Amino acid sequence: MGLIGRRGFVTGAALSALSAVGGGSAAGATDGAGTERADMKASGRRKPKAGGEFRGVWLATIANVDWPSAPGLAAERQRAELLAHLDTAVERRLNTVMLQVRPSADALWPSPHEPWAECLTGVQGRDPGWDPLGTAVEEAHKRGLELHAWFNPYRVANHTDPTRLTPDHPARRNPRWVVAYGGKLYYNPGLPEVRRFVQDAMLDAVRRYGIDAVHWDDYFYPYPVAGQVFDDDDAYAQYGGNFPDRAAWRRNNIDLLVSETSARIKEIDPQQTFGISPFGIWRNADTDPAGSDTPMGLQTYDDLHADTRKWVKEGWIDYIVPQLYWHIGFESADYAKLVPWWEAAVRGTGVRLYIGEALYKCGDPAQPAAWQDPKELSRHLTLAGRYPGVGGHGFFSATQVAADRIGAMATVVADHYPTSALPAR
Questions:
Q1: CA-to-CA distance for 209 and 203, rounded, in angstroms?
Q2: Cβ(62)–Cβ(104) below 8 Å
Q3: Quick one: three-class SS letters along 264-284?
Q4: 184-187 and 178-181 as β-strands: parallel, antiparallel, unpaired?
Q5: How many whole angstroms from its chain centre is CA 28?
Q6: What is the pTM of this model?
Q7: For 134-184, how does the pLDDT look when each residue is reduced to its tens digit (9 = 90+)?
Q8: 3-state SS, residue 86
Q9: Percent of the chain with pLDDT over 90
Q10: Where are the beta strands (DSSP E) in 306-414?
Q11: For 105, which DSSP code?
Q12: Other Cβ atoms within 10 Å of 407 Cβ, number
């Protein structure tokens, strides 16, 4: 989620998908794409059930990483591919799909705040002729799956040219909201009006659809880019006077985003769930004695201004899925050390802990030898199973769940998922 995490993978070319596991629903290929955009909230979320193990998969839409397989496909083809991903999740005995519905300040539903997503038609703002989010919720629930709507709060575009956005895009109407950094455009988290707007844009889906959770990943302030500065001088001058330094002000900005969003979600639906899947290292022990034994350098607290541990301690989120995208024994960030650190972090808080797994690394020839072993990921689940506070795992991403190039996912299923499981609620 570049670095040692998912970052570079997400921005690369989309991989081919679903042939390895077979099919998808035959009906999905023949059912016409629905053009009616009724408010789907009436269909309701799945009713919470006690117990259950989280078995999740991320279904990424940014740059067409997982779905649709290419921009501009016919609506019927898009729908068939979506249903095939849901069917694959069921075949792999998973129970939760985290669908990226707001990839870059655009939407996979008819939003009154932002344009239709570019990944659908290849042209941002062009109506795809159907409602992907509404369809995903309905079809996931038919299959016994939970549908977690995955939003990216601040990313605007994977380029720096505002003229490539739709003419009525909020980022073009409000150019002072936007910062160019690292070859991308971002909304400025330091502006209160931005914070309110991105909440409004995301919460529209909460109000209108029977989603089972609001889900964010690891993008807050952007990952550091050598030699570049995130230019928020004006916002800091206006709003940062009561903070000891810019870093503390930035962390507070993200704290406000998380806490305010949490409160507003519960106002809409007290039973709604809010989860975040951050980069897997809060702080290193050589920086903070409360940190993990992970001398790799990057820390969410210091580098992304995301105090993930605080969000857990304050109870602002219902679950956390740290991206522990490293193999057992990796010196700089050992999976075997990070799992117990995170279990200790959530202990006594009521926040559920699930572990994010780097399925995309399995069989990748660019990765170390551990990732060439089909049993590496299964060993992760075995290790995590020794810790009672770990309630399940999420796999990045759907393309690899289907393709499973060296059988790592099949090994996980054979070793750990002998039967289906209720979603974790």
A1: 10
A2: yes
A3: HHHHHCCCCCEEECCECCCCE
A4: antiparallel
A5: 25
A6: 0.91
A7: 999 999 999 999 999 999 999 999 999 999 999 999 999 999 999 999 999
A8: helix
A9: 86
A10: 319-320, 352-357, 390-396
A11: S
A12: 15
